[in-house]
Amino acid sequence: MAASTHRVHPPNDSPAYGSSRLRAPRQPLHLLPGRLAELTAPLLAGETIGALDHDLTRQHDGEPLGERITISGRVLDEDGNPVTRALIEVWQANAAGRYAHRADQHRAPLDPNFSGAGRCLTDPEGGYRFITIKPGAYPWRNHPNAWRPAHVHFSVFSPAFAQRLVTQMYFPGDPLFAQDPIFSAVPDEDARRRLVARWSLELTEPEWSLGYQWDIVVAGREATPLDDDASE
Amino acid sequence: MRLSLTPSQTVGPFFRIGLSTTIGSHVVGEGTPSAVRISGQVLDGAGEPVPDALIETWQPEGVGRCATDEEGHFDIVTIKPARNGEGGAGTGAQRRGRRRDRRAASRCVRLRAWTAHAPGDAHVLP
């Protein structure tokens, strides 16, 4: 196991996160020897990113309710190299804390002007930018009176297998962190802090929207896959 | 300076909102002459189907992605990975090592699964 991944990723089986009990592998993962696969085919065959796919506030006739925000940052590898043309996909609850998904039964209103999904490709500096509204906290049934802190789901997809990452971005100062078993499943305190965006004056637009800055660091192109951690 | 990694977090039960269309279950078209189908079922530790797992396959020719159905089944249409032709100079041991690496790395499809909260643990319909 590489020292840099130690205690960074949550173990697959995190007892406080009830669902992981039956959904974590009990056997070590089957790690294949040799170099890791790198995609040589285009990531998005025959598909392009639309000009407004990064703006979750402009996907309907009207504007979504909620606090308008910008989330921006860079995707870098461990050596500080920008990860360019990575596909970033985001999805999130609306301002009331409900997802536009048929299975979400939280008794909060849906917003007809908010679907809650966006995507973009990182630029030559590894940069990305989304415009959205701040998601609401919502209850779930992991333990009595359990609430998820407000978060945006992020999926990062570069052609290198080792750099695949699915994670969540949180907002600074959320009082719900300590009771959340998903956030708390990250063993290391510094690593947990890296899941929290920074409020940014530079990204805050006067008379318009708040800005949050969040950089994402993925493994080097030929690093051991992150699941290695859990296979010990 | 070495940067510290961003931790991973669960994909959650609602990933279909954000991940459904960008990359699909067909790495190649259905009619491709050498196409193969990789099918399977995701079961939890109690042997119950996992109806909200996300499966991804990786190979040099492309990536496939499929969410499981109500019985936990998934289906990826792809082709058998080709051997790469990379070579070049080096000592005999290095060349043998590269050949070994190529055999291992280029003739397999890597598969990874994500799961979220079990139904009932979230405000989620089974």
Provide a brief overview of the structure:
The complex is a heterodimer of chains A (232) and B (126). With 232 residues, chain A is mainly β.
Question: Can you characterise this structure?
Answer:
The complex is a heterodimer of chains A (232) and B (126). By secondary structure, chain A is mostly beta strands. Helix content of chain A is 6%, strand content 24%. Chain B is built from two helices and five strands; from the N terminus they run αββββαβ. In chain B, strand 2 (54-59) and strand 3 form a beta hairpin.
Task: Give the tags.
heterodimer; A: 232 residues; mainly beta; 11 strands; B: 126 residues; alpha+beta; globular; disordered C terminus
Mean pLDDT of chain A: 89
Provide the β-strand percentage band of chain A: 15-25%
Number of strands of chain B: 5
Cα distance, first to last residue of chain B? 47 Å
Q: What is the N-to-C succession of helices and strands of chain B?
A: HEEEEHE
Structural class computed from helices and strand pairing of chain B:
alpha+beta
Helical element count of chain A?
A: 3
How many strands, which pairing sense, and closed or not: the largest β-sheet of chain A?
A: 5 strands, mixed
Radius of gyration of chain A: 18 Å
Q: What is the helix/strand order of chain A?
A: HEEEEEEEEHHEEE
Structural class label of chain A: mainly beta
> Which pair has the most extensive contact?
A-B, 79 and 55 residues
Largest sheet of chain B: 3 strands, antiparallel
What best-fitting shape of chain B do the alpha-carbon axes yield? globular
Task: Tally the beta strands of chain A.
Answer: 11
State the share of residues found in helices of chain A, binned by percent: under 10%
Strand content of chain B: 15-25%
User: Uncertain runs of chain A with pLDDT below 50, 5 residues or more?
Assistant: 226-232
